[in-house]
Amino acid sequence: MAIHTPADEESPLAPAAPDVVPAPVVTRSRSNRAPDYRLRGLDLDAPAFAEAPSRTVRKRHPSYRRRRRRHVVQWTIALATIALVALALRASVLQPYSVSSSSMAPTLRAGTDVLVVKSSLLSGPIGTGDIVVLHEPARSTCSTGGDGSRELVERVIGGPGQTIRSSAGHIYVDGRRLHEKGWFNRAHGELGTTRIALTKIPQGSFFVMGDNRMNSCDSRTFGPIPESSVIGKVEATIARDGHPYVHFL
Q1: Which residues pair with 153 in a beta bridge?
Q2: CATH superfamily membership of 93-141+149-248
Q3: Domain regions of the chain by residue span
Q4: Which pLDDT value is given to residue 220?
Q5: Which pLDDT belongs to residue 85?
Q6: Is the pLDDT assigned to residue 1 strictly greater than 90?
Q7: 100 near 110, Cβ under 8 Å?
Q8: Which of 124, 191, 192, 225 could anchor a disulfide with 214, C-beta 3.0 to 4.6 Å?
Q9: Strand order in the sheet with 170-173
């Protein structure tokens, strides 16, 4: 006798079981091409260093070239004018002179170029302490030959009408000691080894000495010099040993 269970019988009220449709199997097709691992937007096949862009050369504007040309012309004219003025001044007012001895050391050593204002154009009289350039007197025996053709640079120590002498290593003018404010080379003192005899300076003459009292050919040897032998007054240095050296005295 067969035994039937409730599960074996379909209940007229139970819904029918839906049909189960299996999920489709998706298979990926494989190709022989290697995976592409490049990032989007990045080309790894580009050269590592791109060629630098060429530098843009801007052309000069014609107005710039005109301005530059005008400036060059202006400077040329200015320099030419300065040169002409210098030549004119040299011919009429100024005269360069090169110191060739050590008689004025340390104030003016050998190899120094100075600017001399001609005596006829000086604004005032020559006074004590002024440095002058003069023609060496014909009676001088300081230089070889002593023909008076050389020019000397000296400092004025005494003027017309004054009396000058030395005593105990000092210089006296009209009986009063001369305080030279450091004019002379202190290494050799006020006089060096040459003394000054009592001298009355004639009118229109000067008593001159070099600052290097130990090695100077001056009025101690050839006496007072006439004003007419003075070429001019030294106003400034302009060069030393071939190099610019501007110094006003």
Answers
A1: 133
A2: Umud Fragment, subunit A (2.10.109.10)
A3: 63-92, 93-141+149-248
A4: 94
A5: 56
A6: no
A7: yes
A8: 192
A9: 176-177, 170-173, 163-167, 199-200
Q: Which residue bears the tokens 């009429």? A: 92
Please give the structure tokens belonging to residue 154.
């000296």
- Rounded to a whole number of angstroms, the distance between the first and last alpha carbons of the chain is 156
The first and second tokens of residue 182, run together, are 């450091």
**pTM for this entry:** 0.62
Closest CA to 215 of 81, 103, 125, 124: 103
Between CA 190 and CA 106 the distance in angstroms is 13
What residues does 205 pair with on adjacent strands?
226
pLDDT tens, 166-203? 999 999 999 999 988 888 888 888 998 899 999 999 99
